[in-house]
Amino acid sequence: MTTVNTVPPSLDDHSFEQVLEQLAPVPADAKILLDARHARWASPFGLTALLTLAQTRTERPAFAVPELEDTASYWARAGFFHHAESLYDLHGSYPKKWDGGESNSLLDITAIAKSSDVHDVVGRVQTRAKQIIASELHLDTKAIIGFTMTLSEICQNILEHAGQGGWVAVQSYRWTKRLGRRVVVIAVCDAGLGFRKSLESSPGHLPTSRWDDAAALEEAVIRGVSRYRDRSRGQGLAGARNYVGRWNGKLSVRSGTARISIVPSWDDDPPLVEGLAPFQGSQVQVIIPESVSGTDRA
Amino acid sequence: MMNHIDLSSVLRRTLACDLYSNLVTRPTGAAVRGQIEEMLEDSGPRALTVIDFSHVSMIDLSCADEVVAKLLLRYGAGTSSQEAYFLLRGVTEHHHDAIEAVLERHELIAALEEDDGVRLIGTLSEDERQAWDAACSLGEGGAEAADVAMRMGCEASVAEDVLETLCRRRVMMHVDDRFVAVGTSRDG
User: Fold this and answer.
1) How many angstroms separate the CA atoms of B134 and B145, rounded?
2) How many CB atoms lie within 10 A of CB A246?
3) What pTM was computed for the model?
4) SS3 (DSSP) at B111
5) Which of B57, B58, B65 sits opposite A232 (nearest CB)?
6) Does the domain formed by B124-188 have CATH 1.10.10.10?
7) With contacts defined as CB-CB under 8 Å, which chain A residues touch B106?
8) Cβ-proximal residues to B139 (8 Å cutoff; 6+ apart), any chain
């Protein structure tokens, strides 16, 4: 029997929780069909999380593609179907050709599995990020440097901690619904170990009385703890946290059943959410908004 | 002996690829540092090495940690038989924040060459900064502790202690009983 799960019309980090909630009672080896026929829009997080979701299933899932031509075309240009073909049985009509790098996004969905992938991503993003951050977000040159650095560090988290490959996508768009301003968004998702298991693998790990996904996220994101004893480690997420703080951005890290966020004044997300539907691995999102009248400049 | 290491050349050799000019990822940084350490093996017991960032587009935290911090940690810890000094050249805003962040994390300092002279970045005390400034202002021939003390407004023994600390931290060197700030001498 196939379980049908509906993909919301507008798919972002929040609405993706609906997909996970539907899936929570379904065993990993059960056959599922993700029904995205009525999907109209998806954020970089939504698209990379959909690919990641397929990697958490032991039985190859099915996927009904968006019926709206514009949506299917956009998802195709972002590279979604190109990657989804190897993970899902796709149903419905969608553009088969993907030129790779021809969309308006800063970085189409890209697989991260090795160090050279990070070099490739940074190289590809650099020039376009410079143009978009300066001319559309009206941020200082330093924001461009920090952006590329943050992207690099978050991607490396996959290589260092996930134990398997993941996905990254970067887009810039006008976020009318929540902010009314342009934003640039980095989404990095993997279906690997997740923060709790990664920290538990540290030789000196001693679980506290309250040791769960939320505690692990607090350790890693807020206190910069890494599974390595080396003092050098744990700088990547700390750097991302500093970067969003400096440019009035938002950082969210979801792992297992919890999500921790560095929340700017323009957002009302709680800093820590526990008891979410389980999702294997780690999912990171960075949002940098357009500056309003220079007030966000460091 | 004085060495000049163009990081972008080392990077290209490390990756065996001309396409990338960004120093990113920890494995890349470790490989680049490995190549630098190999070069230093042939540099004799005492050497000043210029690490040149001029043709590096950007560096991330992980790579800065591997290339800069771990290099300074290795040669500054007193565990190496070599007396190695480093001068960072060509550092722009595309590299500065990452380098400074890793230096601060490890409580290190480094000498940074700029258009108008050499300055220290990283973690240093006010005494160390004053002693550095005083030694630099006394010219490229170096300074004696007494002269530095006069500029600092302290006892010669206090100035000498601070200068010795800077020597241990590999940003000051002894040359003929004088203290010479790294990068300020005509010979390096």
Assistant:
1) 10
2) 18
3) 0.88
4) strand
5) B65
6) yes
7) 231-232
8) none
